[in-house]
Amino acid sequence: MVRVRLIVLAFVAFLFEGCTCCAYLNHMFNAERLYDEATEMRTARLDSVPDENSSLPGNEERLKYDKVIEKGSRVLERFPKNRKRTAEAVFLIGESFRHKGEWSKAITKYDEYERYFADYDSMQAVEYQRAFCLYKNHEFNISRFALEPVITNKKHPYYFQGLNLLSLLDEQSEFPDQAIAALEAVLADTSGTPFMRGKAHFRLAGLYFNKENWDKSREHYKAKEVQLLNDRERQTAGMQAAECLVNKKEYLKAADEYKALYKDPAFVKDQPLFLVRIGEITLLAGRYPDAFIVLQKVNTEYPRTEFASRSYFNLGDYEQVKTMNYEQAIIYYDSSFVSRTISEYARQSRDRRDALKRLLALRNANDEDLKKDSIPNVDNFFGNEIQIAELFLFKLSEVDSAVARLTKVIESSDDSARVLRATYARAFIYDEFKDDHDAAEELYKEIIEKYPNTEYAKQAQVNLGMRVTVKTRDDEAKERYLHAESLWTVASEIPLDKMDLVDSAYAKAFVEFDSLYQLYPETDAGAQALYMKAVYFQMNPDRVDSAAHAYRDLRDKYGKTPWGQQAAKLLSGRLTITDDELKRLRRRVQQSEDHINSLSAKYYENLNKKPEEKKAEVKSQEDEVLENSYNSMYDFE
Length: 637
Description:
Layout: H1 2-47, H2 59-78, H3 83-100, H4 103-117, H5 123-136, H6 140-151, H7 159-172, H8 176-188, H9 194-210, H10 214-221, H11 231-247, H12 251-263, H13 271-284, H14 288-301, H15 306-323, H16 326-339, H17 344-371, H18 378-395, H19 399-412, H20 416-432, H21 437-450, H22 455-463, H23 473-492, H24 499-519, H25 524-539, H26 544-557, H27 562-572, H28 579-607
């Protein structure tokens, strides 16, 4: 009988254990299935985007990862003592957070995995993925520390990925040379797979390209392992290799490489891009008839596209810069704008077209004046010349033409102010646009010598990195105002029982303010001095008419300054308020009334309640629900 009872008990125990196992298997089976489905969707997504780092999972893919996290979390709550089962669940949760781009939560799960399951198979993957998530979370120093176990062991399965991540960290630390060294180490180790070597070549080529080392960049872009990469990366490598030749001014060779890309069946969808670039490079090579044929082919085969807009823009630029046929350039720019009005090239074409029309109008007006015996309006003539120079510089990107126009103004005009402006503009162009710092320095020094005590001379000293010694009239006026203000302050601090000293002190300050206004009426300090004169008159009962006259001068002559506006308010004798201020005031009053009414209603409602209704309500304790953050630490020990 005892044996029968023992057998029954054993059977019952086995049955319950089997149910527990089935529950676990059900959760983990679904979690793994959902994770595999999400992985397939992720792979398909990354194959269709140009940059996997900027691609985010779609809603359906995110929902699957959420389900994986939910199923894994249930396993953690129901089987905390089973290390093998919980290890797999924690790893899947961390991976799901990583694929969703929730880096902090993924890091927490990876830390949890190392804390409790460091001796399990997925630990090596965790070491690398945690470092990667730290990098994506912009914790670069910690990421470098977390990466050490990966890159110090050449047998680590993520060793080459680790070196690649190390190079990314070096880039973020603004140490491109260290990033290059890390990738060179990948290539120096012959145990890496050809695909990984291709990835390293591709990254190295980009780093060298940014450093403008065209030979090294091209060498890595043309490496044979690069051909093992996907079509998108192979196309980028081919284009960048050709651009290296362009930067080396080997234009025809670069055009031939773009032609090879144009004929490659794998890159058919980007043929119009290749065609436009072939035309542009051929223009740079000076083969203008051939370039025109290629660009017109783009206009014919791909009308109303951004490529046609870009093509017409290049044709317009040629006519503007090379032949100076501005009328034809305007036609091409119009065609560029019409081809694709929302493109960047259309915007540039519109700006250039408007600038050329304005330039032609100014130039024609000046040409008509030059045909006459004498220029009827010299100011308009040279003003037009300066405007033409500004159009060449800022709208048409023709620096040399701008310098030529400014030189004409400097050599022909008798107006010193206009010559000073043109001279400074020419020096600035040499400094900032032509990078001819010696010529710029000579012109800046000429300005300082010939036109001292001007704002241009002061700025010239700043641009040369010199100690600023030039004082403009504004600077001199400000210094005198500070002196007069100090006298006024002294007068205001004299005790009233010494009235004779007070009067003389204020009179002395008044003399300084009056002198300042007489000498520097065009400056802000001069306007402020006139205001202080009016204040002084107002302090003396017998000088009220003088105060009113000073305030009227302020209002009429300096109405846009703070002192002129204050004078206008004092003369008006009443408070003024704008419509916006009135609206804000009314809104504030209405909000206050609404708040008071609300408080009043609550007060009376509470006052009219029965005593038993005023007792605090007891909330029922809700059933415990599964935590949905999935981000807590579980105590498996």
